[in-house]
């Protein structure tokens, strides 16, 4: 692999894998003592940054929902629901596979162990990347600069040598360290955007 070509850093959820968070919140709230009350609170309940950085385990999250919302299902059932909102992002698995033949492709995702394990087991796209950096393993999460800097350090790359692709504009904007960024909407728009950075797509 040529040293002059960029390292392409992909977010996972919302880019390589679809995630319907509203569906997740609905399914979790439906298992609570008062679903109507729990539903508008669910995004805050499960969106705790400590989950993404690994400071709070998914088992502890289940316990918190049991205590605070009367969540009435076992941990095993909770795990099934916890990853039930994922689906494949059309066209992205072959694109990543093709890019990985020519460029260094890595994944940097805000996620937790249960989600990462589910995606590894059920979707091939993760296996095409040369490396994957998960926030719960790093103890650092986007959009903070130290998280991006840690990935650059691990990759031994300078910011200008990388392209970062994320579906959340606040995450790509936070990469104002000199990293080239793309806000993901769909594969077609992504191909056009990375072509402007000199990345050829043959998939």
What proportion of the residues form beta strands (DSSP E)? 5-15%
Q: How many helical stretches? A: 13
Radius of gyration: 18 Å
Arithmetic mean pLDDT: 93
In whole angstroms, the N-to-C terminal distance is 18 Å
Shape: elongated
Overview of this structure, please?
The protein has two domains: 7-19 and 88-195, Rossmann fold (3-Layer(aba) Sandwich); 21-82, no CATH class. The protein starts with 6 loop residues before the first strand and ends in an 8-residue tail after the last helix. It is elongated and about 55 Å long. It has a five-stranded parallel sheet with strand order 5-4-1-6-7. It has a two-stranded antiparallel sheet with strand order 2-3. It has helices at residues 21-29, 35-38, 42-46, 49-52, 58-69, 75-82, 92-100, 113-122, 125-128, 135-138, 145-155, 169-173, 187-195, and strands at 7-10, 17-19, 86-88, 104-109, 131-134, 162-166, 180-183. Helix 12 (169-173) links the parallel strand 6 and strand 7 (180-183). The mean pLDDT is 93. The chain is an alpha/beta fold and 203 residues long. It has 13 helices and seven strands.
Structure characteristics:
5-stranded parallel beta sheet; 2 domains; 7 strands; two-stranded antiparallel ribbon; alpha/beta
